[in-house]
Give the backbone structure.
Amino acid sequence: MTFRDYLDVLKDIVVSTAKGMAITLRTFFKVTTKGAITIQYPEVRDQIPLGSRGLLFNDVEDCISCKQCAAACPVDCIHIEADKKDTAGTPDFTKGGVRKTLDLKKFDIDISLCCYCGLCSAACPTDCLYHTKEYEYSVYERDKHIMDYLNYQR
Amino acid sequence: MSISQELVEGRLSQTTENLRTDELLLNMGPQHPSTHGVLRVVVTTDGEIVRAAKPEIGYLHRCFEKHSENVDYMGVAPYVDRLDYLASMNNSMGWAIAVERMVGIEVPRRAEFIRVIVAELQRIASHLLFFGTYGLDMGAFTAFLYAFREREKILDIFEMISGARLLYNYMWVGGVSRDMSPEAVTRIKEFIDYFEPKIDEYNTLLSFNKIFTERTKSVGIVDEATCHTYGLTGVMLRGCGVRWDLRKDLPYSIYNEVEFDVPVGSGQMGTLGDCWDRYFVRMQEMRESVRIIRQLIDRIPSGPHRGKVGKVVKVPAGESFTRTECPRGELAFYIISDGSAKPYRVRCKSPCFLNISTLNEITEGVMVADLIATIGSLDIVLGEVDR
């Protein structure tokens, strides 16, 4: 490489970088006049669109203990226990009018295992298991991530 | 005796011969920012020269193939999403097509349109991330911010369509999990109109920047013979001038109905098949993806978004090998079914694994800084390398 070639490269570097810097400057002025693209997260929150898959919730009143969600779950994080219902009592129905033939004893979801794939809520015949928009639920103890929906309190 | 005297007497060469040089073993990674994930490269250096670079993988191994033997065909989809987590849509599209071909499910036209649009958006998002991180590897920080600004818009659209931002589980066997709303269609139209001029901006900002081209030209050269030896596909193959794209040559879904070019490397900056060529092929592919979306977005037919599929997908006994074009190369699934609800054996052929396996060969004798440039241009995702 001769000294002249070296100068040519140097010239190219300055010119092409200046072109890039022009774009950066344009963006900079756009941001300063029209406002920033980023948001200050804990104070300002983004709008979560409808149907976003967050924390799971099960409305146990409507659950018929069919265990289809547990079968569909690819990571086996749903644990259901149910007994046969006493037929002598008054028949129990869900809001959709499906008769409950089983007595739900346990409906736990280990949220720390959940992969939010949405296969369980799609399999649910009474639509009682669904994803909420909630996404901030970190806790200090791991056991607290096992959601007991029969005694649900948050 | 001074050095100048030695020079005069021509004895310096003798002195350097007597100097003892030693090779140094250097561990790059697994927490090194330029290795793009948990990759460890054991580099044998001789001064600034790389003598050998051995990639050590397995830090992200999750037994994908064994896991899929224990879940049903629908349940494999979330695992497939997690292979190449930057291009989940393309991955699960491959899986869905593989299972559909075995069962013989017909996918509705509307679902095919949505699939291709979403897969091309994902390709843009994946290439944008490459563009950003490659700039970062080369010491250009601005490009990274620009790329993430655009990628964020795509992720917002995906969240609207599928309900998730990174691991969508959107492409189900027989179609897609949810229908695309008219609002999402408008958002996609807005995005492609906004995005197309930005590609020129990126080219000015980074692609033709002299500092960037000087760092990437004639570095990490992969020639056609190497590609065939290692079985490289995708951008690695196209970067060295071979016009091979499954979307064009063995079209699946509705790729045979759309017009697009297959960009290949030209060697215009240095040697054919160097890092810059691979980089620029990806930049051009983004433009082609926009072209595909533009052709499809206005004529999405109405109809169901999922074909007739039972609650449990039962696949007849047999085997199939299906490959699709992902942003990083050809992803192939080899499925053996014994007729039950779960696959008997699944084999995943990952393009990233093959890309990283060439590292030792193509970086022999280069400088350490060029090794970083080469790893970046391979565009590997460790989730797919290790599976």
In short: The CA atoms of residues 69 and 119 of chain A lie 7 Å apart. The mean pLDDT of chain A is 84. Helices of chain A lie at 3-34, 68-72, 119-123.
